[in-house]
Amino acid sequence: MSDEETIFSLIIDGKIPSYKLYEDELIIAILDINPFSPGHTLLIPKEKVVTLDKLSSKSAAAVGRMLPKLSKAILEITGAEEFNILQNNGINAFQSVFHVHFHIIPKFPDGRGLQFPFKSTPIDHEEAIIMTEKINQIIIKGL
Ligand code: 5GP
Question: In angstroms, what is the span from residue 34 Cα to ligand 1's centroid?
Fold first, then answer.
């Protein structure tokens, strides 16, 4: 594998087999090889970027268009009525394949699906006011 290549770029290039659910010029959807629950799917932009913040608007739009449709089909076929979207960016954020991707994970009443180990703390309001202002400015500048 070259520096840029990952298991997903090899799958996109057809060099490694996969259970392909959908493909167009911008995205591919495959079943995860090690699923949290039946129907666990990966929606992968073909663009070779590691994390979501680097993804082009064109690819992001293709992902956004397909996520609801794909989720609906997965629910219909698995019989699940609930699901999680998971999207990891960076090794400490549990990313293990360094090509941006979205997980669609059906959740079943018996517990199969994503388990939540995540911890939260109440918001710091002073920090939130400053952060809101700064992020607003960056977003407005980029529009
Ligand atoms: P991440 O931890 O990066 O968010 O998720 C990577 C996902 O890719 C994991 O859920 C893992 O099971 C899946 N995966 C890794 N290698 C392969 C593979 O060769 N084929 C498929 N279909 N999925 C893979």
Answer: 7
